[in-house]
Amino acid sequence: MTAKDPYEILGVSRNATQEEIKRAYRRLAKQYHPDRNPGDKSAEQRFKEVQAAYEVLGDPERKAQYDRFGAGGPRPEFHTWTTSHVPFEGIRFDFGSLGDLTSIFEQFFQRATGVGAGPRPGGRSRARGPDLEYEVELSFEELLRGTTREIVLASNGHQERLEVRIPSGVEDGQRIRVRGKGQPGPGGRGDLMIRCRVRPHPYFRRDGLDILLDLPLTLTEATLGAKVEVPTPDGRATVIVPPGTPSGAKLRLRGHGVQDGRTRARGDLLAVVKIVPPKTLSPRARELLTELDRELRQQVRPSW
Predict the structure, then answer these.
(1) pLDDT, tens digit, for every residue of 229-255?
(2) With 50 as the cut, is the pLDDT of residue 30 above it?
């Protein structure tokens, strides 16, 4: 069976960066995932090829080895890689027989060192299979309270369904490890790494365990003070605006932030003041503001 080039599978050039390789992998894994293509054997095979290609190119060390030796494996002069007498000629990384999602580099080492049927006398313990990476998208509300996701793993024509708990407070890009649910190997299965992606919220944004919310105020509210009702993750709450509050000030509502899934500590909500001046003025309003400015004689740039 003809070996396939992992660069060709992922559709990236040989000088692609790790970030470019990761983006290509995510796009193709999402496109060919069994959840999106139920019963489609060609999509399932393509999904396996993408996973196998990323095993090599997604690991800088494995990528360097592949770039150096190619799909045919090392040449005979690199005999120091193993103490066995199995020759390196003819060893190929077979991207075609991907039914069990076995690591491509494990294929090479199993054939070159005899690992797979059992540990060699005096040899190293057998390696576990590679880790799998799976990406889930979360809403901001799911980040706040935690949620569960059903993960479908495809291997050797079979599907394995897992229910994974996503704790509250996860960061965008954070990975959650599920042990023993990765790809199979001679020493057992690797781990499943769940990478969390959080969708932006229309008006909340996160700063650690705190939540930031822009609070638009009129010139009068900021100058004279006010009580303003604002949204929080727990419902509506009232923020007290002190007289003379400047733009950029942060007004704190304690205990309305993100809860850490491990420590159960909870942050605060910070309402960030944004003073909104009127865009249009009637002649009378302009006259009153001019009169007010003369009355206040406010110096806002004294050091200049």
Answers:
(1) 999 999 999 999 999 999 999 999 999
(2) yes
Quote the tokens at residue 250: 């942060």
Query: What number of residues does the chain have?
Result: 304
pLDDT confidence bin for 71, thresholds 50/70/90: low
Asked whether 108 and 62 are in contact (CB, 8 A), the reply is no
Per DSSP, what are the bridge partners of residue 163? 150
- Four-point Cα dihedral 214, 215, 220, 226, nearest 10: -150
Query: Could you tell me the CATH number of the domain that includes residue 35?
Result: 1.10.287.110
Query: Percentage of residues in the chain with pLDDT exceeding 70?
Result: 80
What are 121's two structure tokens?
């006398």
Measured CA to CA, the distance from residue 31 to residue 37 in angstroms comes to 8
Bridge partners for 241 per DSSP: 226
Residue 273 pairs with which residues in a beta bridge? 215
Query: Domain containing 11: what range?
Result: 6-113
Average pLDDT, stretch 198-207?
94
Residue 160 located in a structural domain: yes
Strands 210-217 and 226-232: unpaired
Q: Please state, in angstroms and rounded to a whole number, the distance separating the CA atoms of residues 53 and 62.
A: 11
Structure token pair of residue 44: 């399932």
Which amino acid is located at 167 in the chain?
A: P
Angle between helix 104-113 and helix 41-57 axes, rounded to 10 deg: 70
Taking only the tens place, the pLDDT of each residue in 114-171 is 444 444 444 456 788 889 898 999 999 999 989 999 988 877 778 889 999 999 999 9
- Do 105 and 143 have their domain in common? no
Tokens found for residue 273:
């003041």
Q: Does residue 296 fall inside a structural domain? A: no
Could you tell me if 55 and 146 lie in one domain?
no
